[in-house]
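Troubleshooting entry. The earlier prediction with fructose -6-phosphate gave an output that would not parse, so I re-checked the input for stray whitespace and re-submitted. Clean input:
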Amino acid sequence: MCGIVGCILKDKKAAPILLECVTKLEYRGYDSVGIATPDSEIHIKKDQGKIKDVNKKIGLSNLPGDMGIAHVRWATHGIPTKENSHPHTDCSGNIAVVHNGIIENYKEIKDALIEEGHVFKSETDTEVIPHLIEKFMAQGLDLESAIRDTLDMIHGSYAIAAMAAAEPGKIVGAKKDSPLIVGKGIDEYFVASDAPAILNHTNNIIYLEDGEMVILERSGVTVKNMLGEVIKKEIHVLDWTPEMAEKGGFDHFMIKEIHEQGESVRNTLMEAADIEKVVNELPDIERISFVACGTSYHASLIGKYLFESLMGVPTDVILASEFKYSAPALNDKTLVIFISQSGETADTLKALRLAKESAETLAIVNVLGSAATREAHHVIFTRAGPEIGVAATKTYVSQLTCIYILVSYMSNRMDLLEELHKVPQYMEDILADEDHIKEIASRYKDSQDFFFIGRGFSYPTALEGALKLKEITYIHGEGYAAGELKHGPLALIDDGVPVVAVVPPGISHDKTLSNVEEVRARGARVIGLGSHEDKLLKSEADDVIGINESVNELISPISYIVPLQLLSYYISVEKGIDPDKPKNLAKCVTVE
Ligand code: F6R
């Protein structure tokens, strides 16, 4: 996830305004920033680092001209460096492009272009775009047609803004699977990753759809399809406040990130080919150990259930902080998988350094260039984009997606991979039921204790649901394997104690329902998560959150966590807590 902006202004310098706009997109990425403005040639200032530090160092707004493009980066291909920062240019430096998304087939294109004599300066996937545009413009096409031909060649997701010194006064934008909006002011025109970035300048917004292009010129904006035909678009007049704008219209980053989970799963699925490559590089493995903390530990538990049930590979899961006390006997037939959204968690890094001495290591990480990615033998990236809310949400579902892809390739279960592609839609269906979950939250918000129960694949979901509750509502929440209740915790179930039961269709369904009956008999109020069609659950639970009936037990963890995140989020809001910054917690824990 990166942020892009472009503008054509009237009688104003563009660079300071591009800097202001791109700063509003810092939630989309913060490892590098760059601006390009043209006069007779294209001028670029860019570097790695946070916007304010880079600006202090190189004076980003000190560029000539009344138009330009800008970018804030969240590295996906190539670590954060000046060379990998956007805008990227062609060989001559006369075409500049900013891009948000992932170009899946960039390697083949890059190899072919190098063969034809193009010289690349970065390790990014993006750089193929200006070189392709250069190639097509050299064949006589104008910028717009050259971009159309370029987009025909690339697979993956993109939102781009591009300009060429040969066509002054023009910026071309286009999108597929990444957001891009157009702002139409008075004699001033914008493109941006989202409307809040440009709200200080105009609130007249056009939302582009996939397969649409926009051409900004001094005379106005034109939207076209990929055949070059003009499309008439509606202009939306937004009435957002600046705070709403910063969070894309949501009240908190956490709820925004919960809503971004479908996109995170889709982006992570685009990583499948790279994950397959990692699988092909792995030596023969006889045993797997997962090592992680917190939410990443819960993702690891799902990994254990998957590897053991689908492949029969003995798998254990170790809390990173316990690794040095209880590490299993490691050898070169053991694969130790480290899961960490930040890649900087001290406990996880310590364990990684220990494990590396005797075993093969693989890190599943969201932050490119982080310590774990530099130190592990193999690396897989989750493509959740930056997560600002302290409580992990979209990084968790991306971690799960990676684990499912990994196990699909290792066990040759391509049906599982196919099933994963349906998950974003399941998530969207759950989000459509948000008001119902909000209403449940308001009825249960004063409870002192919650229990979360599930069996098999739903047990880690119960643990993660309880962790979310503790973190952001400060209510005591316990996650239990449903069958374990009767071995002790049942003593705590009294009149009115909420029990959240995770009961997807599958082999654990009937047994978990028996446990639901046990808690009901002791006065518990039951919130059931299960299939829309589950009549038995409906008859047992006080409240039911219904999920698409096709989501079976095996695939359920990625979707079933969404209602639990929403439940905690809305209880937190009802209690007047800031869910983005829970007390005593930090986004990245760099101490042991
Ligand atoms: C929970 C949460 C933490 C992290 C844990 C590990 O919402 O965010 O429990 O999961 O601190 O962090 P990473 O994944 O960065 O190693």
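This one parsed fine. Residues 3-244 form a domain with the Glutamine Phosphoribosylpyrophosphate, subunit 1, domain 1 fold (CATH 3.60.20.10).
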